[in-house]
Structure formats: structure tokens, C-alpha cells
Amino acid sequence: MISPPAHSDAEGRVPSKARPPAGADAWSTALLFLASVCLGILVCETGLRILAGFRPESAWKGSVEDSSGNTLAQRFVTEYSATSGTDRRWFNEDPSPLANRSEVDPQQRAAAREYQRRGIFPAQAAYVWNSYYVESQRCAPGGAFESFPDQVLTFVPPAAELHPRYRFLPGNTTAEGLVTNQFGLRGPPLSLAKPPKTIRIAFVGASTTVGNHEFTFSYPERVTYWLNRYAKFNGLDVRFEGLNAGREGLNSEDLSAIVRGELRALDPDIAVYYEGSNQFSPADAPIFPRYPTRSDLDPSDSIVQHRVPEFIRSHLVLGDLFDRALNGFRSAGEPRKPRYQLRWPPASANTIRTSTTRTCRCGFQPLSAIWTRSAKA
Fold first, then answer.
1. d(CA 100, CA 113)
2. Exposed, middle or buried: residue 367 (CB in 10 Å: 0-12, 13-18, 19+)?
């Protein structure tokens, strides 16, 4: 005779408290599935980061600023031969923090948001425009200031010319992070008179020279830092100062005017010129159909929008990859591009020009510090 289990009653029934809870198997399966999914995501995330070297799109903004050595540029530093008296480890060092970095003016931050809302490059909210350039554009159909707010800051250049088209506000920290000294140049403060035993290097160019406004330092600031490290390491009794005169969107006519009207008084010893693409803006002339400005786009034209929340895109490679896949791997914020055709105009060499000297008065007072749209009458 087989005895009933010790935990059963006289009739061999097992008490309910000893039975598995109702639905326990379903919960166990769900938890196991969830753990497997999390583990799979972790493995994929790690693999994409380490094996494929893939990073979230937003993370690339700071890749140049990464001083850990894990940058794309670091690869090339190790491949090039090093000059005697240098140390490759300097490449991973940052210059000293800018003493002239300040809190952003709330009005400037609000202005940058308004410019962005209007489809204008937000940094232009802190531009000080050449009054002659403003005068030449304000009466022109489709002029440069057509979508701008009712007021812009202006300055009167030493010579009555259109260049440079704008300057940065002096002694300012913009909403994007750009820091300017008392001369409106990006970087640390400078004295008007060049100190003894100092070599001043003027860096002249456009966006590739001034650098991304969000970056803590531009390349001229890093080059100046490396040169000072070299001088100190080798016992040279000399100091280097960099003058970053770069401004996005400028061409050689603007840069020539900057050297004459702004840099010459600061007595630079060397000038590094790095620009080119902006000089070839007339190359757009033979391109058809004409590509309209953002403000002229058909409202029904599809603009690529992010589908995945920014927090997920900026922290998870899989989130960023999923967002790109949903957008067909097109650049976010860009409309679809038409199929272009190249049509050379007759006598193109004579009809394509890089600038205009036409001016119009229209009641505008160029000596005004502020240009208002009400002055257009």
C-alpha cells in the first residue's frame, strides 16, 4: 500500500497553498522573455559600439572635443611622423578654459530661438551686419534679410564697401557657445599692443576656421596651444598668440577686408589662410532647377523629422539607427532634392560674378546702430 504524501490530507489531496500560484508559468515566461530581449539589446548595443565603431548621430557633435584619444583624428596622429621636440600626447590635451566665457544673455537666447523658428541660422542673431551690405540687400527682391526680424545690428566699416558682410559681437558668449574677445575674434582676450617676445598668428577663413560654435575650442586655439607647449618643452623664450578671424559663409573679398580693417592693427606676424568652397558660390548658376530657399519651399513638401525621442537617439546606438531607418537614412531636417541638370549659360565667364557693388538708399541711414524694417519706406 502506497502512503499519501506527507503534505496531503487523508484523501490524498494536496493543500492549495502548496500548489503553484495561478498564472505563475505565464509570469515566468514573460520575465524570461523580457530578460532575453534586454540581453539581446545590450549585446547588439555593445557590438555596434565596439566592433562596428558606430555611434549615435548626436554623439558625433562632441567627437572632436573628446580628449580621451578615442577620436578619428587620433588614428592619423599616430601614423604621421613627429617633429623632434614634440610629444603626440599633446594632441589629447585641451587649452585652458576661456576666462572670458560668460553667461548667455537671455535676450540673445530668445533671439536665437526666434531666428531658428524663422528658418534662419540661429547664430545670425548675434551678427553685427555691415551697414552698406544691409543697404544693398534691403531693396533687392529676395534679399538676404527678407525673412529676418524687424531689427538687425549694424556697423559702419572704415571704408565704404560691402565687405566684410558681418562681424561677431565683441566680448560676447552666444547661445550656441561661441566666445569672442574684445575685438570680436573667437578666443581669449588679447591686448591691442603685441607683447614682447610674442608671435601672433592670424587664422583667416570661413566656417572651417571659426569652427562649430558648439565646440569648446576651434582649431586655431588648439594650434596656438600646441605651439606654446612646443616652445616651453624646448626652452624657447617665445610665446604664441592666435587671432581667429574666421566667420562662416565668407569669401576672399570678405577676408581681405578683415585683414585690412581688423587684423592689421593687431600686428600679426603670420597669416594662415584656409578657405575655398565659399568662393565658388557662382557655380550654382548653371544648376537647374533652381533650388528655392527654405522659406520658399512648398509647405506640403515633406521634411524629414526625427521619429525617435532625442534622449533615446543620443544615448542608444540602436535608437539612433532605428530613427535613421524610419527616415530612409535621409538627413533630418532636409526636404527631398530634385534631380538637377547642368546647363552652361552663354558667356558664363562674363556673366558669373562673385559680388555686387550696387547700392540703394531707400531712406536707410547707414550710421544707425540698428536697422529697422520701418526705415524701408
1. 24
2. exposed
Instruction: Give the burial class of 251: count Cβ atoms within 10 A of its Cβ; 0-12 exposed, 13-18 middle, 19 or more buried.
Output: buried
Question: Which one has a higher pLDDT value, 355 or 334?
Answer: 334
Residue type, 336: R
List the Cα angle 365/376/354 in 5-degree steps. Answer: 80
Start-end of H helices in the chain: 24-50, 72-79, 106-117, 131-138, 207-210, 219-233, 252-258, 310-315, 317-326, 348-351
CA 40 and chain centroid, separation: 34
Nearest to 279 by CA among 205, 357, 203: 205
| pLDDT exceeds 90 at position 289 | no
Positive or negative, the CA dihedral 127, 133, 137, 138 is: positive
| pLDDT tens digits, one per residue of 104-148 | 999 999 999 999 999 999 999 999 999 999 999 987 787 889 889
DSSP-assigned letter for residue 363: T
The residue among 57, 239, 53, 261 whose CA lies nearest residue 157 is 261
Query: Could you tell me the CA-to-CA distances from 254 to 142, 204, 366 in Å, in that order?
Result: 22, 10, 19
* pLDDT tens for each residue of 55-111: 665 444 434 344 444 456 777 888 888 889 999 889 889 999 999 999 999 999 999
The beta-strand segments (E) located in 187-312 are: 198-205, 239-244, 270-274, 287-288
pLDDT of residue 306: 81
Neighbours of 126 (CB within 10 A): 24
N-terminal to C-terminal alpha carbon distance within the chain: 114
Strands (E), 93-169: 127-130, 151-155, 166-168
